[in-house]
């Protein structure tokens, strides 16, 4: 499978999902190869603005360096399969929001990293707790479908159910720290 050749079934699952999803290829500077409507409505970036770019374009002048470092470390750590990262981001029109970014790695049969799939969630809304619970339920279901679709192409994705289930406590920690 060529590096950027995205299996149709995987692309369709990403497009169908109502949670924000972004997929990057592991080659080079990890450019995005697919973003869905949820990603565009959350960030304001249409696919034509986002594709072929590293997703760090969502960061801005006030994004704390340690938040970026945590993601960078995760992506470089071959032993890590999934993670959940709060990061201060900016929409296309300049609105700041605290993004809770879930990431999971897709590997080939030899264990080589091929893609990284991410889901973004805006924790700034007043009803974030309820919205996150709903988002997680959809994300959990979608991840099962995505794992199945990826598996058909020999791509292995770890089961992130446990991590997704912990996102409410991650949100609680962020809110607490910000008070
Ligand atoms: C698929 C994918 C989605 C990502 N989504 C976001 C995001 O929504 N917001 C963000 O600030 N960083 C996101 N990142 C992280 C950045 O792209 C980048 O990896 C991070 O800034 C650390 O690398 P750097 O130190 O080279 O910038 C994402 C990364 C990947 C691979």
Report on this model:
- This protein is an alpha+beta fold and 179 residues long.
- It has one domain (8-178): PAS domain (Beta-Lactamase, 2-Layer Sandwich), CATH 3.30.450.
- The chain has 7 helices and 6 strands; from the N terminus they run H-E-E-H-H-H-E-E-E-H-E-H-H.
- The chain has helices spanning 8-16, 37-43, 47-50, 65-76, 128-151, 161-165, 167-178, and strands spanning 20-25, 32-35, 82-90, 96-107, 113-122, 156-157.
- Strand 4 (96-107) and strand 5 (113-122) form a beta hairpin.
- The longest helix has 24 residues, at 128-151.
- The relative contact order is 0.16.
- It binds flavin mononucleotide.
- Flavin mononucleotide binds at residues 22, 24, 30, 54-56, 58-59, 68, 71-72, 75, 87, 89, 99, 101, 103, 116, 118, 120.
Helix content percent band:
40-55%
Tally of contiguous helical segments: 7
Kindly state the number of beta strands: 6
Shape: globular
Overall average residue pLDDT:
92
Q: Report the structural category.
A: alpha+beta
Instruction: Give unreliable regions as ranges.
Output: none
CATH class: Alpha Beta
Element-by-element helix/strand order? HEEHHHEEEHEHH
Tally the structural domains. Answer: 1
- The oligomeric status of these chains comes to single chain
- Second rung of CATH, namely the architecture: 2-Layer Sandwich
Tell me the CATH superfamily: PAS domain
| Main beta sheet | 6 strands, antiparallel
Which small-molecule ligands are present, each listed once?
A: flavin mononucleotide
Range of strand content: 15-25%
How much is the radius of gyration in Å? 15 Å
Instruction: Give the end-to-end Cα distance, rounded to a whole number of Å.
Output: 48 Å
In the CATH hierarchy, the third-tier topology is known as Beta-Lactamase
InterPro entries: PAS (IPR000014), PAS-like_dom_sf (IPR035965)
Keywords: Chromophore, Flavoprotein, FMN
Protein name: PAS domain-containing protein
Domain PAS: 6-78
């Amino acid at each position: 499978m060529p590096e950027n050749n995205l299996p149709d079934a995987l692309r369709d699952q990403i497009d169908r999902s109502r949670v924000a999803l972004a997929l990057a290829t592991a080659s080079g500077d990890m450019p995005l190869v697919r973003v869905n409507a949820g990603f565009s409505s959350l960030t304001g970036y249409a696919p034509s603005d986002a594709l072929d770019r590293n997703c760090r374009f969502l960061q801005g002048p006030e994004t704390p360096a340690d938040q970026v470092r945590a993601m960078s470390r995760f992506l470089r750590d071959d032993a890590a399969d999934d993670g959940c990262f709060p990061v201060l981001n900016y929409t296309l029109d300049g609105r700041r929001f605290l993004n809770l970014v879930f990431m999971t790695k897709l590997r080939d049969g030899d264990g080589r990293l091929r893609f990284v799939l991410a889901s973004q969630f805006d924790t700034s809304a007043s009803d974030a707790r309820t919205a996150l619970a709903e988002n997680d339920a959809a994300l959990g279901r979608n991840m099962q479908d995505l794992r199945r679709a990826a598996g058909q192409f020999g791509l292995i994705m770890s089961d992130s159910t446990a991590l997704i289930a912990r996102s409410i406590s991650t949100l609680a920690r962020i809110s607490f720290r910000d008070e």
